[in-house]
Design goal:
eight-stranded mixed beta sheet; about 35% helix; alpha/beta; 2 domains
């Protein structure tokens, strides 16, 4: 049984009030959370330091306009925050931030991390839809029933890592049929306990791994097997990848939104990867035809080599793809295999170095040695 607080309010209102109270009482210097930007359904991650500005905050709104781990990295790239900041992140965003911190791309210190048991996020193409609020309402009904919403990102539908890791406070949402009346905050760290002293609720002892959670995990595992089987169903290897990425326009949007692709200048955007006239002429002479733009498959293979072992399956890459390539599903499939090889779970342990920077003696075998 874990320490927790039961709050007799609906989950959105209750978390809003909790964060606003921390801000008003100056227990924290700011809140990093989602905020409504207009009346047309647009939202954005924002760092809010004024209680007056907090009125438009929507901490659990089911959209991910950017991976919050990538955004927090930009705030802390030059060092830790001077004062405590509360940050509301989904499990994959938190894991992404941990991976970036490992790579000296951010700092976790002075953050109060709050994360929900996650039902996924809605596809970005639904933001601004005339039926957006109806879709959001249907999403919360699915969360209450621990069902998989068909409007969520494909990777969300088969994600098995929907329980937060390394969060100071977990907002229990999935499978709570009374979510519109009450919810539970799990206190996972001394920091979480300290800040939760100000929450208006009653102390309880609860288990986060409920029957509903376990059944939900099984549903996602079944979908994971289905999606992986259908992705590259014509076979494994280069031919399969050529077919999958054939529609690629070369916009590189997938790398720009990926939290693990943090390089200021990607090598694939550099002049060295531009196709020169002499090369075009030679290839045309040898092949009789040439796909334009060139080098798209090499770009995706290069990304896989660099970041698939740390892929957190947030789904940003697929959501921004203009030609609907299932980039996230491919990377999730490749990443899960690589992670098993290296016995590495991205974002789990802040002290565990990323495999790319870790060298073990047994990996340097003599040529011909079995």
């Amino acid at each position: 049984m874990a320490k927790a607080i039961k709050i007799k309010k609906n989950v959105e209102e209750g978390l809003f009030d909790f964060l606003k109270s921390l801000l008003e009482k100056e227990k924290i210097n700011g809140v990093f959370t989602l905020k409504k930007m207009d009346d047309n359904g647009a939202i954005s991650y924002s760092l809010i330091t004024s209680p007056d500005e907090f009125k438009d905050a929507v901490p659990l709104y089911p959209f991910m306009p950017v991976n919050a781990g990538k955004a927090l990295s930009s705030f802390t790239l030059l060092g830790k925050t001077e004062e405590p900041i509360a940050a509301v992140l989904r499990p994959c965003e938190l894991r992404a931030f941990v991976e970036l911190v490992k790579r000296a791309q951010g700092d976790l210190e002075n953050f109060l991390i709050i994360s929900p048991t996650c039902g996924g996020v809605l596809s970005l193409n639904l933001m601004g839809d005339k039926n957006q609020e109806k879709i959001v309402s249907q999403y919360w009904t699915s969360v209450q029933k621990a069902e998989i919403s068909p409007d969520t990102r494909e990777t969300c539908q088969f994600c098995e890592n929907f329980l937060p890791i390394n969060a100071d406070i977990t907002v229990a949402a999935l499978g709570n049929k009374d979510l519109d009346k009450e919810f539970i905050l799990f206190l996972n760290s001394p920091k979480g306990e300290e800040f939760a002293k100000h929450a208006e609720g009653s102390a309880v002892s609860e288990e986060i791994e409920t029957k509903e959670i376990n059944e939900f995990r099984k549903k996602r595992e079944e979908l994971r097997e289905k999606f992986f089987k259908e992705t590259g169903k014509e076979g494994e290897g280069l031919k399969s990848l050529i077919n999958i990425f054939a529609p690629c326009l070369g916009c590189h949007g997938c790398s720009h939104v990926c939290p693990i692709c943090y390089c200021v200048l990607c090598d694939f955007d550099a002049k060295t990867h531009e196709y020169h006239s002499a090369s075009l002429s030679l290839d045309l002479k040898n092949k009789g035809g040439l796909k334009v733009p060139t080098g798209n498959l090499l770009f995706h293979l290069g990304r896989m080599t660099h970041m698939a072992v740390s892929c957190v399956n947030c789904g940003m890459c697929s959501d921004v793809c203009p030609v609907n390539i299932p980039v996230a599903t491919v990377f999730s499939k490749v990443g899960s295999s690589l992670q098993k090889v290296f016995n590495y779970f991205p974002g789990k342990d802040i002290e565990e170095p990323a495999p790319q920077g870790t060298y073990k003696e047994e990996e340097f075998k003599t040529i011909g040695e079995q």
